[in-house]
Amino acid sequence: MRAQTKPGGSPQARGRELARIGRQLWQESGSVKQAAVELMNRYPDIPSLQAHRYACGLSQDQAAVRYNETTGHQTMLGGTSINAWETWARLRGGAGSPPSFSSLLTLAIAYSSGPLGVTNEHISPSDLVAEAYERLAPEDQLSLKSFTSTNTPTKPSKPETAPKGHPTSPVSPIPDGVDAIGPDFSLTVPTVEYGNPEICLYSLPNPKPGQLLNLSWASFGYGIERLIQQIKNVGRRIDVDACFGINEAGLAMATFLASAQFGRCPIGYLKCNKSRDFITLDPASMYPDLPEAPAIVLCDFEVKHADVVGFVTREIRARYPRAEIYFAVFGAMTKDSNLEVGSFDDLTGAGIIRAADFKAVFIAATMSPPGIEPPLELR
Predict the structure, then answer these.
(1) Which segments of the chain are extended strands (E)?
(2) Which of 165, 177, 192, 313 has its CA 20 to 30 A from that of 25?
(3) What average pLDDT does the chain have?
(4) Which residue intervals make up region (Disordered) (predicted)?
């Protein structure tokens, strides 16, 4: 394919545009490697190391976050290291610094999960330095050669293609006991500045229209695991001061998220009393002592038509001025019968969520009327 001209503007603007193009190419091909190759065909000045990052739709800082997540946060790599490696790969003459074999191995694993952090494509460390291999240290060349020869599949693997907007594989295997769920799909949602706006969620088809869909504990846990994956892949580390649950089902979600993702942070409880015309907070609600301008994750089991989220959010901000609030919901109702929505505004509660002005939004699944029922009929 004929090489295209470079996107104009500042280096930062060009990087954002190339990351957008790379993410779009990944959506079309379902493969990070294929998207990276196409990027290099279009823009010959981009080295393979950089092209794989753009194919994942990541900035240098986001790539560093993904790198540290891959090592279980045993490293504290910054975007400057990613920049130094890519500068070395792009330019000759001593600019930048070459990545070590271990760093290439970690990057290959990090980029193998794609823009959404949900795929498991085989990417070799040698793929990342295809054009700069000879400029690596002799020891790293030997390591790469040995690794490649011992890890080459006996049968070439063909990347799975996915429909546009759909990841190539689920976030995690579906465990026994999980109710029937629909296919995974991606959705662009409000998120933090320079964060990854695409989340991977699934639909909850109802085999008995007009009746509540009762969820098992396994299904409940699977949805929470999906929320955790979305939080991990937002593109930056989220440090949270507290998790708040709306009613008992939200409280269960907040408890799991606080323990599994946020270092057992304090937990708040918002018990809502509903009548036909208004909502009030019960005195049994719990508000932990928090620092000034805290970061809070608000958990709700489902979002339909009622503006419970907006009411609760206003109450939280009144009690904790300048709070940054993230919103995690298990089930979001859709306006139409098609649960695999193509736009955030196709959700019934889209306007309510936007008006609440959350820092970021996480959704495990979409649902149809009349909704879903948590285990043990938690309210």
Answers:
(1) 184-188, 198-203, 213-214, 242-246, 267-270, 272-274, 279-281, 295-303, 324-333, 361-367, 372-373
(2) 192
(3) 85
(4) 142-175
